[in-house]
Design a protein that fits this description.
With 196 residues, the protein is an alpha/beta fold. Helix content is 33%, strand content 14%. Helix 6 links the parallel strand 5 and strand 6 (174-178). The two termini are 15 Å apart. It has a 5-stranded parallel sheet with strand order 4-5-6-1-7, sandwiched between helices. The protein has a two-stranded antiparallel sheet with strand order 2-3. It is built from 7 helices and 7 strands.
């Protein structure tokens, strides 16, 4: 439960996520999916028990080191007034080859019409779905050992949803997707589905 609140949101949850596998966590709105994502990423500490990765309690790993282990792509990630490239790389050095890979990744998630030079602003007409895919690419750019994507397809239509999920499933790292509205066909592509 959250500090100062009595209502228990996640209770008696025990699970072992295996390296390289793809997981779907689903449940109704308010069931605790986002809280679980924040616990798994170390953003929140559990009231009881522990969440461990490679023998370390994830919440006790310094934040700068934790981002190499696990990255949490939130449902409402922040974009700032700069070009798409810097919004994805967060000003880390990006070689020409990495830029080419980013362009391919943008094509893969149906952002073909947007350039890395496109400046993000309130007036440039980017849709909510386009913005969420840019945030997802940011999380994938410095790919950690575990990527947690919270409702990565909430603002997308069926075709774009399938494209984004296929891109996530193609990662060699462990991927955990939080969603409540994937089709049965897409759901079956995950190694396991956890219902909370």
């Amino acid at each position: 439960h959250y500090p100062g609140e009595e209502r228990i949101i996640v209770n008696d949850f025990t699970y072992r996520f295996e390296t390289g596998k793809k997981y779907l966590i689903k449940g109704e709105s308010g069931s605790g999916k986002t809280t679980l994502a924040k616990l798994l990423s170390g953003e929140l500490m559990p009231t009881e028990g522990s969440i461990q990765m490679e023998g370390e309690i994830i919440g006790e790993v310094p934040a700068e080191n934790r981002s190499l282990l696990v990255n949490y792509a939130e449902q409402q990630s922040y974009l700032f007034h700069d070009d798409v490239l810097h919004n994805i790389t967060l000003y880390r050095n990006c070689s020409e080859d990495e830029e080419k890979e980013l362009r391919c990744a943008m094509d893969d998630v149906q952002l073909k019409e947007i350039s890395l030079d496109t400046v993000i602003s309130d007036s440039n007409g980017l849709s909510g779905g386009e913005k969420s895919r840019i945030c997802l690419l940011r999380a994938m750019y410095a790919m950690p050992k575990v990527l947690i994507a919270d409702e990565p397809t909430s603002a997308l239509d069926g075709k774009n949803t399938e494209t984004v999920i296929e891109r996530l499933l193609s990662c060699k790292e462990t991927v955990i997707v939080i969603s409540h509205n994937l089709s049965d066909v897409l759901e079956k592509k995950f190694d396991d589905t956890i219902v909370i």
